Amino acid sequence: MRIRLLTISTLALALAMPGPLSAQAQPVPAAAQTQVATPDYDAEALRIMKGVDATGFTGAVAIDGKIVYSGAHGLLEYGKPGKVTQKTLFPIASITKAFTTTALAMLVDEGKLSWDDPVRKYIPEFAMYDPWVSEHFTVKDALTHRSGLPLGAGDLTIWPDGNATPEDVIHALKYLRPTTGFRDGYAYDNLLYIVAGQILERASGQSWTDFITNRILKPVGMNDCAADKSLIRPGQSYVSGHERAAGDTHGTPIDPRMAFSKTWNSAGGIWCTADDMMKWGQFWLDDGVTADGKRLISEKQKNMLWRGVTPTGSGIIPASGGATNLQMYALGWQLSQLDGTPVVSHSGGAPGVTSNFIILPQKKIVIFASSNDYLSTPSAWTRQIAADLVEGSNAPDLIGKAIAAYDKENTEARAAVDKAISPPKDATKPSLPIDAYTGTYRDPWYGTVTISKRGKGLYIDMSRSQLLDGPLTPFNGDTFAAIWPNRTIKADAFVTFEVKDGKAVGIKMKAISDITDFSYDFHDLDLKRE
C-alpha cells in the first residue's frame, strides 16, 4: 500500500484535484509551559489544500497536553454535499503499525513473548525463501523492514483489491526472493506486519481487532476510533478515499473494491479522528500511561519501541539544515531529527487517503493530519507545522515546495504516461499468432494469471484482482501493454512473454510508468505456463 502502507515524502506528491473547501476550526490558546512559535494552523491547511486541489482534510496539534488546534475542511466525497468535521473518521493506514507493536509490547511485559523469539515459535508454518533465515527470523525482524525482501514485496496478493487471507500471505513469503542480505538494509513491507498480527493473535488468544479495541483504544480514551472499518458505528462520519488519473484536476472516489480487507488490519486498518490521535500522542508523551493513570506498557518497553533498529537515511550529510540524514526505523515508528530536535513519526497511505503523525517528545508536541486524497497534503502540513514550531521564522517553506512539486508532476504526468505506452518507432510485430499466447500462467507466491482471446486481441485476468483485468495492446515484439480500465490507479504494466521453440512458456511484468505505486509489484512475478 503504499500500504500503501508506505512513507510519503514531503515533495513526493501524487497527482491531485480541486474540491470545494469549507473551514471548521477550533483554535485554543497554546499552553504557557512550552515556549514555541504560533503558526497560523488553519491558513496553512487551506494553503496546502488549495495548492494541491485536495478534497478533504483534518488536522490537530497538541502542546503540553492541550489541543491548541483542531480543524477540518473540505468534502467527505467529491461532488456530494457532506463536509468533513472534527468528528470525521479517516483511515490512518500504516500509522496502525505502532498499535500492533504496542500490543506486542504488552505481551512482552506479560511474559507471553519475547522480541527475539523466532516467528516459528508462534507460526510453525512460517518460512522465508532462505531456510536459515526461516529458522532465525524473529518477532523483531517482522517489525523493522530488514527482511531482505524488496520494497512492497508481495503486496499484489492484497493490492489493489486482492483477496489474500493471512494464511495466503504466510504461504507466499517463502517464494518471494530477497534482493539484499537478511538484516542488511531497509525496504518497507506490509506482509510481515500481517504476520505480526498473526503472532499477536496466537500469543494472546484474541483477535487483533478485539485486542486493539479493548486493550488500547478504549483505555487510551480513543472512543471515536475503529480498529476495523466494519466497527464504525451507525451515524459516524467517515470519508471516501479519492484517486485520480494522471493529469486530472479533482479527486475521483475510489472503486469500493479497493477498500482494505481485514487482512490488512495489523498493517494499516485503523480509522480515527484527529482529536483522538492527540490522545494517542499524549499516551506516548506520558511513557505509556493513560489519562486516568493506567499503565499499559512498561517504560522499558516504551523505550524499546522507540529504539532505532534499521537505518533508513541516505547517510549523506547535507551542506546545511537539520540532521535529516540521521533516520532510523524502530518498532512501528520512524525516528529522525528536526534542527537537532528528536522526531518520532509515521506516515500512512491507504487507497485514496494519506495520513501523517508526528511527536516531538522534548517539546511535548503532537501533530496529526489526514486527507482523503492520495496526496502528500498531510505530510506537507504536519512537517510545516513542526518546522514552524521548532524553527520559528527560520523554518523553510515546506508547503510551498510541496505545491511546486505537485504543479510540476501534475503537468508532466499525462505526457509521461502517454509517452510510456506509445510503441517505439522500430517496434516489431508479435512473434507468434495471437492464439499462441493464451493460457494459464502461475507464479508460486501470487497464483494464476490467465491470458485469453477476446475479439481479435488478448485479455489478461490477474485472478486475485478484478481491477487488474483488461485488454493487452501490442507494444513491441512479444511485449504487450496492459492498460487497465480504471485510469485512476495509474498502474499500467508491460506484459512480456517468454518464447521458446515457438511457444509462449512464461511471462514477466513491470510497471510502465514510475508514477505507479510500489505496491503494484508486478516485477516480482515469475509466471510460468501451466
From TrEMBL:
It comes from the Bacteria. Residues 54-377 form the Beta-lactamase-related domain. Residues 424-529 form the Peptidase S12 Pab87-related C-terminal domain. Gene3D superfamilies: 2.40.128.600, DD-peptidase/beta-lactamase superfamily. Residues 1-25 form the signal peptide. InterPro entries: AmpC-like, Beta-lactam-related, Beta-lactam/transpept-like, Peptidase_S12_Pab87-rel_C. Keywords: Hydrolase, Signal. The keyword Hydrolase applies. One of its GO terms (molecular function) is hydrolase activity. This is Serine hydrolase. It comes from Qipengyuania algicida. The lineage of its organism: Bacteria, Pseudomonadati, Pseudomonadota, Alphaproteobacteria, Sphingomonadales.
